[in-house]
Each structure stands twice: as structure tokens, then as C-alpha cells.
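User: Fold this one for me? It's RBM45 protein.
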Amino acid sequence: VFIAQSRASGSHRDVEDEELTRIFVMIPKTYTEEDLREKFKMYGDIEYCSIIKNKTTGESKGLGYVRYLKPSQAARAIEECDRSYRAILAEPKNKSSESFEYDYYSNNMRPELRGNTLSFCMQPEFCSFEKAETRIQEPVSKRLSVVSRLPFIQEQLFALFDLVPGLEYCDVQRDPHTNSGYAVIQYSTAASAIYAKYKLHGFEYPPGNRLTVIFLEDGNDSSE
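Assistant: Here's what I get for RBM45 protein.
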């Protein structure tokens, strides 16, 4: 649809259309730009690859960009790449600043913030928590509240929380007065919700914007 709209508008400079040629992906922290290029070059001609790094340590945050020469190549990469990359169209750059992710990240990054990497184990038992981590002191439920200073995009937030198995629905709402983001997430089990909160509370998405994730009462007995 994006490609069709671009062509219908009379634009013939599709190779320079940042909104349609740049994708945002989740990658292992061990990936280099060469690794990223190698994984995605099969889908088309790559103009550049970049990896988002922690400003303090220089370590990869497990997130990156790939820009193709043509929108059709970016679309193919999103459609055909492994789902573990969670590929989506990146936020467009504007003429007065760098990309949204880098600009917001550089303005808000503090040395004490930890780097983000979703090291999910896609097994039913969700890997093994340390015993201390399972002694949750707050009431738990299958529902989560997610708050952000920035508005959410439904598809992107759903894709993020769908990394944890058992996602039933993601309801994104928007405050017209503050322009902040708010969403309600529900999983099929309390275990999934606990794991999602454990992994995603404080996660920067997009980079520089920390998510606040808390439990919501769902009317069930939380003792289980």
C-alpha cells in the first residue's frame, strides 16, 4: 500500500524515499554491521546498515537499521525475513534532524541505563528464573498496563509483546491532552504476563523512551 501511494503521488525518486526503504530490526547483540548486511542482502541492494549502540559502553543494544535502494526490496525483507528479527518500517527521517530513534536516544540516554536486548527463550517454561526473581511481592494477573511518554503504534507494540508466547490482545489508547501512550496487554496465563513484565519493564522502545509495565487487576485469584 505504501509503495502504491508513493507511485500514485507522482514521485519517481523511490530510491531516496526514506519512509519506504529503511527497516528497523531486532538482532543478537553479537551481530556486526557486516553480519547484518550478510543476513539481509538476499532481499535486495543495501545502501547501508547500522547498529544502535550504548553511548556509554559502545556495546550493541540488539537493534539495527537496514536501508535498501528500493521500497520493494524493503517490503520483501519485512515479509520474508525470519520472524525473530521483528522487522518493521523504521521511523522516517526528517530534513531538520537525524532519525527519531537516534535523536530521542541521544537526548535522553543516561549512563546508568542498561542496554536493551530481548534474550527470550521461546520455550514453554521461558528458561529458568533465579529463585529470587520468582518471589514477586506485588499482586499479579494476566493483564498488564503499558505507559510511555510517546504514543504507541498498535502494530509495533503488538509485535514487541508478541515475543512472549500467549498474547491474547493489545489495546492501544491515546491521551489527546498529553500525547502520551497507554496500552492494555492481556496474556493467556499469568506466567506469560509475569515474564513480559520482567523483560519489558524499563525497556527502551523506541530507543530513548522507557516503557513502564505494571500488572492490572483482572478479577482472578492471583495466588495461583
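One thing worth pointing out: The beta strands are 22-26, 46-53, 60-68, 88-89, 143-148, 167-174, 181-187, 212-216.
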